[in-house]
Amino acid sequence: MITAIVIAQIDPEAVNEKIETALEEDDEFQKEIAEKKKEIQNLKEEIKDIKENPRQKIDPKLKDRLKKEILTLAKQAEKRQIEDKQSKIILGEVVKIKSELAKLMKNLEVAEDEWELMKEPEKLATMVIKQAGSGNGGDLEPTFIECHERGIKVYDKNGKSFEVLTDQISKNTKLKSVIQKVAKEGPYRIWRSSQGTEMDARFVQRDGSKITLKDKQGREIKLTALQLAPSSRRAIYKYDEARKLKLPDPEARYIIFLLRSKGFSSWYRTTLICEAIRCKFGQIPLDGDGEIDLSLFLGS
Questions:
Q1: Which is nearest to 239 in space by CA: 220, 216, 211?
Q2: CA 187 to CA 183: how far, in whole Å?
Q3: In DSSP terms, which residues pair with 152 in a beta bridge?
Q4: Largest Cα–Cα distance in the chain?
Q5: 37 burial class (0-12, 13-18, 19+ CB within 10 angstroms)?
Q6: How far is CA 259 from CA 15, 107, 180, 292, in A?
Q7: From 96-100, 191-195, 263-267, the region with the lowest mean pLDDT
Q8: Domains in the chain, start-ordered, CATH in brackets?
Q9: Per-residue pLDDT at 106 exceeds 70
């Protein structure tokens, strides 16, 4: 916590008196100008310290006092525009001081914004989304929808995205089309062979090491576990375990909501569409405002 602000130590009445006396003697005036410059430099250093130490909480009372003192100095500077032999000199210094004070006020606002943003920097870290268990993407194929304060951001399998504002969610045809496609192709997924060949099919059964898949044209694809890539073998294991336990098959295609702390409204409106279309969905709460990294699920 900031315990001292240099400008708060200035006595406004004393400043007024000294500035008026400075008009009578040039040497004394120059001395006061130098003091004003020193006060401004102190302000600069104080605000610089705030910006460089974002974890220090800015005391609201001291912050308000600082702003008031800056404005007081600006008003005092304006009063120095008097009509005497030194008015032109004073006016030049006043303009410079007013300009410096305006910059200081702006810097104080920026420092406060930066402090709010950086007081918990760990919440700005990039968040890597990965699958539980093996930690490798590619086993399943979710469609990610980020829910934030303004609306939603829908990602495709290549990492490209489009956004929909909250009040437009219920009537956005592109969003509904994406959800309908996921719901329709729920049982299907991309299987990969050990040679890298992709097969868009659904799991039928496993008999020992023999695996049967069926594509969208109804054709059966028979192969062995060793003919599948590791990620696809893990997916087979999950299907097999679910059936042994008489549980529903794991869905290969479904919606995963990446839920920001202020994204509940957009999340709720989008889930209503999913429920109406009977599209499977889940959610991952995000602790922070950092960038989202979906690289483990892209192009795998």
A1: 211
A2: 9
A3: 147, 164
A4: 105
A5: middle
A6: 55, 34, 21, 11
A7: 96-100
A8: 6-119 (no CATH), 122-186+251-300 (no CATH), 190-250 (2.30.30.700)
A9: no
